[in-house]
């Protein structure tokens, strides 16, 4: 059994009760937050870029890095 089989098994829930009932009814996963993997990637990329930008501004403001052309 591969990891994909485990993922698929966890996403199939019967509408009548909360027990596992094979592949009779498919529901959405609440753990993903309702967003697609592409949207999660874009959000992670935006967070990374903002972190880099704020870090660079902090280094410039603290005087540890001097951009070329200022002195």
Structural class by helix and strand composition: mainly alpha
Low-confidence stretches: none
- Per DSSP E runs of 2 or more residues, the count of β-strands stands at 0
**How many individual helices?**
2
Shape by Cα distribution: rod-shaped
Described by strand count, sense and barrel closure, the largest sheet is: none
CA radius of gyration is 23 Å
End-to-end Cα distance, whole Å, is 63 Å
Give the strand content.
under 5%
Please tell me the overall pLDDT: 79
Structural domains: how many: 2
- The percent range for helix content is 40-55%
- Spell the H/E element sequence: HH
Report on the architecture of this protein:
- It is built from two helices and no strands.
- The chain is an all-alpha fold.
- The protein folds into two domains: 1-33, no CATH class; 35-71.
- It is rod-shaped.
- The chain starts with a helix and ends in a 9-residue tail after the last helix.
């Amino acid at each position: 059994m591969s990891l994909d089989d485990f993922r698929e098994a966890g996403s199939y829930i019967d509408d009548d009760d909360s027990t596992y009932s094979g592949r009779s009814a498919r529901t959405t996963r609440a753990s993903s937050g309702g967003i697609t993997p592409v949207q999660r990637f874009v959000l992670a990329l935006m967070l990374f870029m903002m972190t880099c930008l704020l870090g660079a501004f902090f280094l410039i403001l603290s005087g540890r890095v001097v951009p070329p052309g200022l002195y």
